Amino acid sequence: MKLHPVKVHPSKALLPREEQLAWKIAGVATDRVAVDKAVTEMIINRIIDNASVAIAAINRSAPTTARAMAVGHPRKGGAAVFGLPASKGVSPEWAAWANGTAVRELDMHDTFLAADYSHPGDNIPPILAVAQSMERSGRELIRGLATGYEIQVDLVRAICLHEHKVDHIAHLGPSAAAGIGTLLGLKQEVVYQAVQQALHTTVTFRQSRKGEISSWKAFAPAHAGKLAVEAVDRAMRGEGAPSPIYEGEDSVIAWVLDGRSHREVVYDQPFYQVPLPEKGEAKRAILDTYTKEHSAEYQSQALIDLAFRMREQIPDLEAIERIIIHTSHHTHYVIGTGANDPQKMDPKASRETLDHSIMYIFAVALQDGRWHHVDSYAPKRAGRPDTVRLWHKIETREEEAWTRRYHSTDPNEKAFGARVEIVMKDGRTLTDEMAVANAHPLGAKPFVREDYIRKFEILTEGILSPRESNRFLEVVQDLPRLAAGELNLLNIALPRGALAEGKPGIF
């Protein structure tokens, strides 16, 4: 990997495109290196993972709405939409919209956390939709997805969006555009313009994850994927983009991110060091990402597992006086009491808000000893008086050691967990800690292919027919051998009449 310093330049400097980050990203996308076998196997795992959570959420409100919008844009030989027969193709940007929303709805697919946050599996719907529509092969899809993961992870390692209250989909637009560029074998100039357009159109703000969190949280990455498809389409037709989008004097870095200093742009000061593979270097970033065993914000994964372990020591949960979760800056300020969001303590809050409340999540996990993507968020479950009492006894505190581990670049030190103190009414204190979730690559039970398949079978039980489930699992594990035009076989159809109908709109 090579570090690329990124800084703001005045327009009069006429920064050569060869020195621009978007051009370098496009260079990675157009470097035809072989895909490692381990990367191919993990891509298959993540396609299974995405399908699991998408089908489990298929009839919830946001995926139903997105699907209804997509079917308003039919296209013969187009991309497939989860739940519908593959023969009912739609325009690829709308398939990316529908499938991306379904994947994101339950907040249960893969994650990567570094300088910023991300769900790299959000790259799969737009890249797959274009691959289906353009009749590409399994190997071409694998190459495109390896790029999408690589670029998103590399941007997330270096550029923090959330401290400027920018939503993390601003890294997804460029990564998906780059992945599509690899998939289609486009020239560097075309990918360069598409990456810039995709970033320019996907800068949105973190209010989507603050206060009363709405269904837009599920739509947001699908929106970025849709815009990435459209950006590539325009660039293929010869259209350009605002340039240089990262380094220009009125660019994203200059006026939204770290380029601002006392309301004045500081020129020629490096703000970021972005790592990218060198020419000829394999794209392996997907191997640094990790999926979720539980349907909740990633920082809660280890805490759910820890709650399961600690509950065995507490015969009477009513005997708890208070619970203090000592954790990282992010967990405290984003999903903890440091957020100062009263909604995170409200039993009438939306599911989207509850899955960003570690106080609620820890209380339910401690009481139930299990976590379920539906039952654990049910309004009746959230409103249980004993749950509300326990929930309101929990607070979070930032602890420097956990913040340092959260931001560590050493994968053996990096952690997303916490130390928990449970103070009992009789004065006893129980203390335990967990650095990473059981399913994490360094956890007690790292996820392997069998775990991804089990997750798929659990989440789709009662929704898919056994025949369709088995067919999909057989096809996806044969991905490298799928010929051009066969990628629609990766779609999953529900039995006739099983799909919810969306409300009418414009489309």
UniProtKB/TrEMBL annotation:
GO terms for molecular function: lyase activity. Pfam families: MmgE_PrpD_C (PF19305), MmgE_PrpD_N (PF03972). The keyword Lyase applies. Residues 19-261 form the MmgE/PrpD N-terminal domain. The keyword Lyase applies. Keywords: Lyase. Residues 294-479 form the MmgE/PrpD C-terminal domain. PANTHER family: 2-METHYLCITRATE DEHYDRATASE (PTHR16943:SF8), 2-METHYLCITRATE DEHYDRATASE-RELATED (PTHR16943). Monomer. Belongs to the PrpD family. This is MmgE/PrpD family protein. It comes from Teichococcus coralli.
